[in-house]
Amino acid sequence: MSLNPFGRRLALACAAMLALAIAPAGAQTRPQVRDLGAEAPRSAIYIGNSFFYYNNSMHGHVNSMIRLAPPPAHAGFATSSVTISGSGLNWHDVESYFRPNALRSYSFDRQNNIVFNTNDRLYEIAIMMDCSQCPIHPRLSGLFAEYARKHSETVRRHGAQPVFFMSWAYADKPEMTQQLAEAYTVAGNANNALVIPAGLAFARAIAERPALNLYVADKRHPSLAGTYLAAATTYAALFGRSPEGNRHTAGLDADTAAFLQRTAWATVRDYYGERRAAAN
Known about the structure:
alpha/beta; two-stranded antiparallel ribbon; globular
């Protein structure tokens, strides 16, 4: 079947994006940290911006995947999400997020009752994301490196592990994918921190299913499918388990949810350079 000029350009663009997403580019730094250790985390704080809080917050979708995963379950996983619209890492006072008897001093149970908590350790991991352009912006990339270091030190001082969330390219700027991947991987290596390769998962999904829209109209914030893909990638990276077959689908149709689960798991395995167990 012959393609018209537009069709040929689209096919070539998709092939190029797939190559970027799955092939280890010669200039791409490899991550040194590939897991969080033998013990699965039991609590997390998400520190970021609207990329996290769109679609009823990404952490809620991760928590639903955790709750609906088959045994061994991650019982009692607790999270907080601290987001500022449009923020970079330098906007956040991470030290204040670890104040005793402040965040997570109480929570709501499934019957909407307030439960007062006693926390020996407030959070075990802190998942941090900069603004969508900051790590690669000529005037802001230095701040990214500076605050990635400062916040990692703060997190560790409070007995938690830092984790970086690699954000995705804008819909009309696919070249951002590898730029952001490099910036976050370098920061992860510099701070001995795990990196969640959500941006690479976006690129892979777009290359394989360009008709599936991962963005809202502004071309940078995630659609529900985009948030779901980011959540599945986060789940896979944090727990080293495949999200494939997870019963949380966020209301997406079964085929789309299954595709995004597969994409997340394939991206995590490729990025860390290892074949992880397939069990979810």
